[in-house]
Structures are given as C-alpha cells and as structure tokens.
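Internal QA ticket QA-208
Title: Verify multi-chain structure generation after dependency bump
Assignee: T.L.

Test input:
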Amino acid sequence: MIEFAFPAGAWLGAIGAAVLAAYLVRRRARRFAVPFLPLWRAVAAEARGGWGRQIQRALDLLMVLLAVAAVAFAASGPQRPGRPETVRDLVLVLDGGVSLRAGTRLEKLRRIAAAEIRRRAPGTTFALIAVADDGPLIHLTRSASDALAAMRTHEPGWTQPARKPALELAREAARRLRHPDLVFVSHRPASPSPIPDGAPAPPFRFRPVAEPAPNAGFADVELLTDPESGGLLARLTLRGEGTVSVDDLWSGPVNGRRVITVPLQGHGETTLTTRTDGDVFSADDVLYLMLPEARPPRVLVVAKGVPSPFLIAAMQALARTGVVQAELGRTVPARATDASQVYDVLVFDRCAPAAPVPGLRAIYLDPPSGDGVPFRVGPQRPAPALFTRAARHPLLRGFDPTRYPPLRARGIFGGTAVLASAAGPAVAVGPSWIAIGFDPDACVLAASPAYPLFLRNAIRHLASASRGSGGGMDVDREFLRIGAPAPSPGPVQINPVQVDPVQVGAQTRRVGSRLLGPPGFWKRGGETWAVNLLDPNLSLVPPVAKADPLPEVGRPAVAPRPYGREAAAAALGLLVLAWWVFWRNRAQ
Amino acid sequence: MILSPRELAQLRHLELLAQKIVKGQLHGTRVVARGGPGSGFREHRAYHESDPLRAVDWAAFARTDTLVVKEFDAEESLDLVVVQDRSASMRGAAATCAAKLTAALGALALGHMERVRVLPTGGSRPAEAFSGRARMPDLLASVEDSAAGGTDLLGALSARLPRTGGGGLAFVISDFFDPSGATRALSFLLAHRYRVRAILIEDPTALAPPPRGPARLVDAETGATLRLDITRPSIGLYEKALRARADGLAAFCRRTGTGFLRVRAQKPFFEIARECLARGWLGTRG
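Actual output:
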C-alpha cells in the first residue's frame, strides 16, 4: 500500500499527464510559408509511410507519458503508510539469572535490549521488567535515554529466579499500555538431554584461554553420574597434581540447576571457556561452573491391566529412570500441549495408540476415552519390511529377532519402524521418542524377555541422539500471546495444568502480591487481587476505572517511510531515457 | 529606382546579343542578314524588272554598261520579350533580382532602339511594350510592381503575348514553380519561334526547409496547407526534390537549345551580367 504526502500532486500530475498526452498527440504545428507546396507533398508521401514509424511514435509517446507520470508520482510524495494510532509501547523483560554472569552474556543482553529500545519511535512508553523472584519493575519511562540508562543498571542475581512474577507483571503492564510489544530477552541454556542409564556422560573439556593461576590450572572436568543417587559427580583434574574429587566443592542444585563452585587457591582470576558456550564464570575467588541440566530419562508406560512381568522387571532395572505407570483411560488426564513434562520413551503394554485427532497433537488411546498421550505425529510413512535396514539399529543391540520374534503388529503413524512384522511395525523410533510394544492385539513383544533390552537400548539411543542444543540469547516476542504454542519436535509432552487454587470467576485468576511498581502507578489492592484478562471491569485491580494511567501518545510507532527519493531517481531515469528517445528522433 | 545610376552607367557598355538573327518589327540599329532598307552597302546584283529604277546604280551602269541594283543591309530593331515572374513565391530577394534583370534587359534593349515587351505573371498588369530611350523611366517603374498571385507562365504568355507572327528574343525570369509545369511556357515560346533564355532565380532563404518538428506548411501562392513532421529524412527528400527540379529544367533547356542560367537571388547584379557575358547573351560595345 502506498499513500501520498501530497495527494494533490498526484492529481495535478495526472491532469498534467493527460494534457501533455493531448498535446503530444496533436502537437501544435508551427506555420511556415513555402514557395512551392507540391514539392513538400511529394516529400510527405515518401516520408510518412510505414507501420514501423507509427509504432515507434506511439512508443515514444508512451515513454514520455511514463516519465511524466513518474515525475508526478515522485512529486506527490509517495510513502509507505505508517501505523496511525498504534502507539506500540514496549514491555521489555530482561533475564536476571545467574547464568548471565558468564562471559559476555550480560553485555550481549544489554546490547539486544538497547537495540529494541532505540528502534522505537519517539513517545514510546518503556516498561523494563527484570526477571527476579520479586519481579521488580526496573523503570517506566517515556524517554528512550532513560530506558537505556535504567537498562544499564540491570544486574543479574546469583540465582536462577522464577520467571512467573516478571511475566505476570509484564502482562499487567501490557494491559495498561497501548498496543504493547512484549519482548523477553533471556539467555537460553543448553537444552537438557537424558543421561543414559549407567553410562558416563561425555566429559566436558575446558580450555584455559589465559594463563591459569598457579595451582589452579584446570585441565579436564569430567562429569560422571552417580548410580546410587542418580545425581552428578564432577571431577576436576588439576594439571600436574593428580585427580581431585570435587564432591566437596559441589554446592548443590540452585533453582533446578546444578552449580559447582571452585575456590581458586591463588586468588587469581581465571577465565575458562568451554568448547561451547558453557556456564563458567568467576567472581571474587570462586569459580562457578554451571553444568547443563541433566535429567534422568522419563518413561511413560501405559499398561492395560496388570503389567507384564518383563515390563515390571525392566522398570525395576531402571534405577534412575522416572517411570510413570499409567492405566488406560485414567492415567493421562491432560490434553496435548507443549508446556508439559517430557517423556522420552512411550511404552504401550497391551494397549495401542489410536489415530491422531485433527487439531490435537496427541495420540489417543484406543478406544478413545477422552484422554490421550500428547504425541505429535509426523507424516505417514510406509512401514518397512521386517528387519529391513534395522539390523544395525542401536535399538536392536543385543536383540535376536529369531529368538524373540514379534508375532503380530500393525501400523502406526509417523516415526520409523525398526522392528516390524508382516502386519506392521512393532518398535518405532521418532526424532526423540521411541514407542515399544504397542498394539497388544498384534504384538507380544512386551511379554517377551527381550523387553528390558529394548528399554535399555531405547534410553541409550535417546541419550546419545539428543545432545541438546547449545545455549544462546533468545528474544521472544510471543511469550504472552494467547494462542497455540509452537509445535515442539521434542519428546512427548504432557501439560499438567498447573492452576493456582484460587479461582475468581470463570475468566479471573489470582496473581501474587509481588506485582508492585512505582508508587502512584502500580497500585496494589491488598495482598492478593484478581485480574480478569478478558474484561477489565471485572478486574479487582484498583483503580478499575483508570485502567490506563498513561496518556495516549499521539505519534505513530512506525513512521511512514517515504519513497520520494527512489521515485525521483526513477523519474529522472525515465526522463533521461525519454529525452534520449526524443533526441534520437530529432536527429533522424 | 530598381537600378542604381552606377548600374545604369555600366549597362551602357553592354548590348544584347542574339546568336541567331531574329526578326524585328521596326527599323532599328540591329543589322540583319537579309537585304532591306539600310545605310550599309552590301552588294550589287543584276537588275530585275521588278526592281524600281531608283534602285539602279547608275554610276556602275556608266562604268560597266550593265544594269545593276545596289543592295544595303537591313537594319531592324530586336523584338525582346521579358517574362517576369511576379508570383507570390518570388518574394524578397528573388523578386528584387528578377526585377533588376528585367530592368537591365529592358534598358539594354531601349538603349539600342529596340522594342521591349514585359510580360508580368501573377499580377493583373497587362503586357506593356516599350520602345525608345524616352520610355526608360516607364519601364523601370513597371518592373517594380509588388509580387502577388500564382506562377502561371503559360497562361500569361498565351493570353498576353501578341500574335505578331513570332520571332524574337525571349527571356523568362522565374523560379519556375509553376504547378502546370515549368517547361510548358518555354515550349510555347519555342513554338512561336522565339529565341528563349531561361533564368532560374533561387532564393536560398526562401527555399530553406523549416526547422525540424511538426509544421503546417502553407503554399505562398495558393494558400494550400500541409501538416508534416519535419525530420532529417524529410529534409533530405526535399533537398533532393529541389535539386531534381533544377536539373530537370536544365536538361530540358539543353535538349531544346534554350539558354539556361541558374542564379542565386542574393548574387550581385554584375556577377549575373558576367555570367550572361560568358554565355554569349550579352556583348560589350565598342
């Protein structure tokens, strides 16, 4: 869409083009007296002829008209329309976790946030909110410079705070600002991956980029798993001084993260970088080593009736595996969403998933009972023949199909079958999930001694396949938008529907009393209050009548972008071309 | 005055030459190649009964005892016809040049007691005959009339040329922009046994093509118009047609023995006279 800063220019240009066209079609011929006209008649008869010349004249006229139209277009000030009455204020939520202290993450976060602030139009209201346990509002201002100054004072804490208070405050701010843009700048940690049962994780190797302090030259940090507790064991190998267990240095989990602090004996400052963007930073004399969260694999077993003894044995063998045993029709009460727990392995014991329901990312149990396993199904693929391309699959390691043949099976949507029979697949593998022994009517695999082997292979396969993505800085603009979340390619997820116990009305829910802001603006109504997200009149947040304490800023957030310069350049080019054509015709 | 006194004075040293004796209507100073009344002795011939007795040379009879008749060269005046194109196309320098030439030719003829007929074309003035030096002012005044009308040489000749039995010297001074054909008038004069000399007057200013661009061309004589986009090719065609017209006229004159002279209107008068001398149209006296 194009609008014109000077619409009269376009009209005048159009009229001028029409007048010029009329003039050019019948140009005013000057009068010349000649002594003998019959000479010119003969010339005219010879010079006029030919369709080519007529077409050329028409093209010349068209060229001139185009040039005039381009000039009129440029003179009328074309511009891409802005967004009137869309004062897009900015609610900027800044991550405040301890991981920002590592490396240059904080500077990177500030740079991203500053860019967000600077590209706003004048008059934008900025609400800067830090992610912290108390959810403070850093600053509320209409000045970009003030917002930048306030943003520079933002310092991360020493813990990994919960995001919920900050998000609730951002939601409140969004209700009070005009067409707010919600931007959440946060550091994304490396995604967790399941730790294989009984197998050590690959060692984390650190490379000192500076000369390490005396007696503090860490050469290797080896991460081991503790089979007893299921926790982590980090062992630091000091250069030239043997191996030292760092169990005593482990400070334990902090907000779901495992943080290891290592005092530097030489009081020196040591900078260590991981081979990836690791969570290593130092402060004072303490080296903080934040290991990526490692979690035990989660296995969801959906059994119909009493589980088979082989399945029970396999579950008992998985000491560190979070096994959720579910019963058909009752065990998975949630619909398929993404904000949920994660299951790596689905085990169907004598029950089968049904076809996916359109619009819901789940595989429901068969028969449909209203509940289902949220299971995102990919495109349907043809089931391979028995044992085809599956003999070397890690899932079949130690499994002799001649000894434990799956007798019957049927197809499943999505995934790749690694074990199948003539009736269809028995074991299917997806990007990060494995389904074993589904379809009880067709498969007796779960009742065979090979079942624990499959479970073990599945967990190992998932652990080695999903390293997890590296960390980075995220700029999330959709975190408060109500709508379908982005589909997750990850493991099976179940939404446990965590709802605060107090419900105020159908559309009203309780929020905490931490949402405090500057006096005079964010008024608190007591220890708790209710916010109606759909109808502000039903909100218990005072003042209800003055839900918009900020005056409307009359400037558009996105200024119109003029095209006058480009149009003028194009018009100039067309004019030059038209002049050249005219000159060429005169020269002929 | 169309001719300056200096030009008139220089004309006194020139005379009209006719390479072929043409018959005049009056007695004059021009000796013709036939016997007739005159003052110059030519020859004796034997007496014939029809000869008058006073023509007998009695002195010769006394000496030779033979009757002979004394013959003299006839002295007749030249019958000069000057067709002066006064059409609207002959404006400006061309008209002046034509008038000067007409006046000069007339002055030369009158200076030798010859009769001059000036036939203007394009106007309503009738043909007028002048003879005797006393008519010189009238002749000069008559050739200065303004130009008007079209070029109709043949019409002017057929309507105004007197039926005198033909013969004489005819000058056609024109741009020959005659819609009916430039050579028809010359053919008419030749058919009437005139010794014809065509002088083509060309005014480069008037013949210059209009500047390039759309133009409405108006014929100076008829007022007819033509819309034309003047371009370089059309100008080339026009100049080519102009050259072809002059070349065609010259070829016709060569073919019929007609004298032809192409004159630029801005050319000085005496240079034109020099070219006439070179062609043998004029001679020097004394």
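Spot checks passed. The longest strand of chain A covers residues 181-188.
Status: verified.
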